[in-house]
Amino acid sequence: MLNIVDIGVIGAYLVLVLVIGFAVSRKADQSGEELFLAGRSLGFAAVGLSLFASNISSTTLIGVAGAAYESGIAVAHYELMAAIILIFMAIFTIPVLLRARITTIPEYLEKRFGPIACKYVSALTIFLSIFVDTAGSVYAGVLVLQVLVPGTPFLPACIGLAAFAGVYTAAGGLRAVVYTDVLQAIVLLLGAGVITYEIFAQFDFSWAAASASIPAEHLSLVRPLDDPNLPWLGVILGLPVLGFYYWGANQYIMQRVLGARSLDQARWGAMLAAALKLSPLFLMAIPGALAFSLLPNLETGDQVFPAMIVEFLPAGLTGLVIAGLIAAIMSTIDSTLNAASTLVMYDFVKAQDRGWSPRQIVLAGRVTTFVFIVIAALWPLAIRNFPGLFNYIQQVFSYAVPPIAAVFLLGLFWRRMTGAAAITTLVVGHSIGVGVLGWKIWTGAHGMADGLPHFTIVAGLTTGLCLLIAAAVTLITSPPAAARYEGLIFDGAGAARRGLADYRLQAGVIALLVVAIVWILR
Fold it and tell me: How many whole angstroms separate alpha carbon 212 and alpha carbon 415?
């Protein structure tokens, strides 16, 4: 289905990614900090573009377009909420984490609440990174290949995608991940822009004609309370919780922030990523929704983006868009592999405390990465049984992250919060999540309604309960020593530059744009 020009574009892109990855591999040999945090030398453009590219894989390009095809653009709230959360990070979270000089996000919990909280959250983060994010991205990549190249065998394709991204990640570390992410973000935006242009061309660039071709609710961001896909209450209660964990307490996202060379660079990077997170609504969700009238007979929404490539792109441009798809897939795979390896080496192995040489740390980190490659290549066999990629990812997160979000938020803002309260909240909160998930599975197996509200509402309510549990246990336990929270509590936003370089001005503009978009497309 691909002509020689398309194949040439794709091949040139893949070669360039490998060249970048291995070009920085020699520098990654120097130390664990270089391998895992790029020597804490990243500028704002690298941070921002990498934040955007790392997230834009399975949870966005394939998942958002597919969900919009099936139920409408309300799914773009995940992207718009990300912009708000990135603003929150720049103001509140990033200053504390950079001041703490941590290597992993769970390391903050170790300093704040002790080693048990650290290892608990680190283990859960590794699980989510590999079994949800990495494996989900591999699965998304194979879906694309099977549409574009019918007959592509599932398992060999999974192994090939995971291995390709893993090789340059293991060789070059976070610097290779970030530098390739910069390239991937640019290619991704170009590719998505091309497909959006071609979709609107099918309607002679008439918004009236395009919007009239599909049900009105497909182009509405605000959905009723009983909407089965994303009710407005879920947007208010649940999405901030999921977004805070994903963008503020998730190692694979925050790792490039921890690698920034200064607080200003980290904040500007967050603002750049926040601005870019406005684009998926226009480049992925709306085209996916409009494809409902153009491609009415797809078996699942997950097929819509590759199907749009096949149906509407002329020769030559197909290669560019496929390169963008591959970029999206690999940007999450490489990020999660590097992050999971970092968590193992710093939170469990404690290589830096054992007196290991830089060479030993780097070698062990690379071996860990290759182990995770194998897992990520095989787990997509299980994901195939879920009714949609985006549904799989968001439901798993909705039951797993509320206790972590509650502990992080209280740890950042409440000096009185104790380690006992943190552990209790994590254990009880996840027990509730497992119970709710078990109930859904049992009722589904027996053909019964579970009687529960939308999973985003459940996530918000669970977080509220976790906050109450943490507060109650804190108040009946002894307060922590001052050394336990020294420098680990938010105590002011810190100095800011004037004019356009002021992150507060940038944050205000982005927030106003989000409000305007929701109002116009309500």
Answer: 55
Adjacent-strand bridge partners of 260: 42
pLDDT in tens, 221-265: 999 988 888 899 999 999 999 889 888 888 878 888 988 999 999
Return the structure tokens found at 123: 């283990």
Q: Which two tokens stand for residue 382?
A: 């299980």
Structure tokens at 284: 């992925």
The 10 Å Cβ neighbour count of residue 360 is 13
Is residue 521, in this structure, part of any structural domain at all?
no
CA 359, 365, 367, 371: dihedral to nearest 10 degrees?
180
Q: What is the distance of C-alpha 381 from the center of its chain?
A: 21
Tell me if residue 101 falls in helix, strand or coil.
coil
Answer whether 37's CB lies under 8 Å from 103's CB: yes
Q: Domain for residue 126, yes or no?
A: yes
Contact between 396 and 128 (Cβ < 8 Å): yes
Name, in order, each residue with C-beta under 8 angstroms of 503's C-beta and a sequence gap of 6 or more: 90, 91, 264, 267, 268, 270, 271, 496, 497
Q: Residue 149's domain spans which residues?
A: 4-492
What tokens does 42 get?
């990243």
The sign of the torsion formed by the CA atoms of 322, 326, 331, 332 equals: positive
Q: Do 77 and 230 meet the contact criterion of CB atoms below 8 Å apart?
A: yes
Looking at the DSSP bridge assignments, the partners of residue 434 are none
Q: Output the DSSP codes for 399-439.
A: HHSHHHHHHHHHHHH-TT--HHHHHHHHHHHHHHHHHHHHH
In a domain, 505, yes or no: no
**Any domain includes 116:** yes
Q: Is 228 exposed, middle or buried (0-12, 13-18, 19+ CB in 10 A)?
A: exposed
Model confidence over 120-179: pLDDT tens digits?
Answer: 999 988 888 787 777 777 877 787 777 667 788 888 888 887 777 677 666 666 677 777
CB 433: neighbour CB atoms within 10 A? 21
Termini Cα distance of the chain: 40
Distance, in Å, from the CA atom of 76 to the CA atom of 65, rounded to the nearest integer, reads 9
The total number of structural domains that make up the chain: 1
Picking from 250, 267, 304, the residue whose alpha carbon sits closest to that of residue 129 is: 250
Tell me how many degrees the CA angle 397-399-404 measures, rounded to the nearest 5. 80
Indicate the pTM of the whole model.
0.85
The packing angle between helices 317-343 and 44-55, to 10°, is: 100
CATH code (residue 164): 1.20.1730.10
Coil vs helix vs strand at 260: strand
